[in-house]
Amino acid sequence: MNSEKGILVLGATGPAGICLLRELLHRGHHAIAYVRNPGKIPLELASSPKLEVIPGELTESKKLASAISKCTAVISFLGSSGSKVDDVKLFASYYSDYIFPTMRAYSVQRIYAMGTISIRRPEDQPSALRWLAIAIFGRVYPKMLATMLEIEKVFDTKADNLEWLLFRIASIPGKSDETSWRKDREDGDTFVGWVAESGWSFSQKRAALARWLVDAVEGKADTWIGKMPAVSKLAGSKANLE
To answer: Which of 119, 197, 220, 224 has the greatest count of CB atoms below 10 A from its CB?
Structure first.
């Protein structure tokens, strides 16, 4: 059993989660994946000595504690499947009732969690594109929209004494296989700021988002702790083709 402390990934079997696992391992981090179905993790990742896979449900307190006790920070994609659940408060309750208390119990302070631009912050600028996207999204996936607003609420009200960052994304295209990940992780620089500020765009490849998240756990986004910045590809930036 690997005793090295690592980065815990929640939602590790989705495309963004798999890209994140690839990025963590690529950069030499010990990664911990707490997953419902370990079989969804690609074999080349599951066989890495730097990856520890812990099967379990978020409501299984002892198993979750085992995973959190081994980490220095948590990165969470929970909520991305919000359109598939009936209870729009479900993912928010995972944070407030299970993840946050367990982090506090094991003195794990840092969590980076996913939100979407359906979450509004006072610093955001007006954007017709954002308005249209929320209108369409809310009509097609009303439960996922409501889920994200509950996640916003729980970070605003229940994450006290934790060092949290809720990154808000719009479109994150891209595949999670190794070839696509290697190409997409070089897809331009990352914008971090407020919606519709200069440099904000509507899209960022999943692998490039994963690259930024690992930058963040390495200390390059500390000024955004306790905030909910929009994260996207920096408008006008070019892919690194070297």
So the answer is: 119
Q: How far apart are CA 230 and CA 123, in angstroms?
A: 11
Going by C-alpha positions, the residue among 79, 124, 120, 76 that lies closest to residue 100 is 76
At 14 the three-state DSSP class reads coil
Indicate the domain borders of the chain: 6-233
Q: How far apart are CA 218 and CA 222, in angstroms?
A: 9
Supply φ then ψ for residue 225, to 5 degrees. Answer: -60, 135
Query: What is the residue whose two structure tokens read 């919000």?
Result: 82
If you average pLDDT over every residue of the chain, what do you get? Answer: 95
Contacts of 30 (CB under 8 A, 6+ apart): 2, 4, 5, 6, 7, 50, 51, 52
Whether the model clears a pTM of 0.85, i.e. scores above it, the answer is yes
- Regarding the domain delimited by 6-233, which CATH topology (the fold level of the hierarchy) does it fall under? Rossmann fold (3.40.50)
Residue ranges of E strands in the chain: 6-10, 31-35, 51-55, 71-76, 110-116, 163-169, 190-193, 230-233
| Backbone φ and ψ of 49, nearest 5° | -65, -15
